[in-house]
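Could you help me review a protein record that somebody else here produced? This is what I was given.
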Amino acid sequence: MRTVSESDLAKVSEAAELCGMPIDVLKMMAADGLLPQVVRGKAGHVYFPRSAIPTWTECVELLREQRDRHLRRAASALRRLDTELEAVRNDITEAREYPHQTLGIDLMSFGHWPHDRMASTLRGQPLITGVLEQFTTERIAITRYHDAYLDALASEGRQAREDTL
């Protein structure tokens, strides 16, 4: 694999100026692996090969796709939550119909959230807790990508430098 010389690399600020994308949005996209052409310097700084700086349009499309991916994951988590809540409803119905039987496991585990946050992300947690945690993670990602998408649209690529050579 050919190594890229320093003169072939652009700092993230220069790449942002060339493509018209806000610097913080490019940094986020690089950190999340959306821009595989990114090269990391020794101190972890982000550089772009000059020949592979994304266009404003490419960045906006990547942001839109990532936002949509997280929205789909959140919708999937809600469908799983609906299934789990139906199981709790069934346990409640059975407990009312058969008062002498043992209460259902879904009913008994619902609403039990460990006080120790680390314990809730390990083993033995109720499925509903895991689904709610997944939804929360996706909601945070949705918010990040929604804000980045709107910031990118607002920039309208107007910072992009015209190549006048």
Summary: The radius of gyration is 24 Å. Residues 6-54 form a domain with the Multidrug-efflux Transporter Regulator; Chain: A; Domain 2 fold (CATH 1.10.1660.10). The CA atoms of residues 136 and 146 lie 15 Å apart. DSSP finds six helices and three strands in the chain.
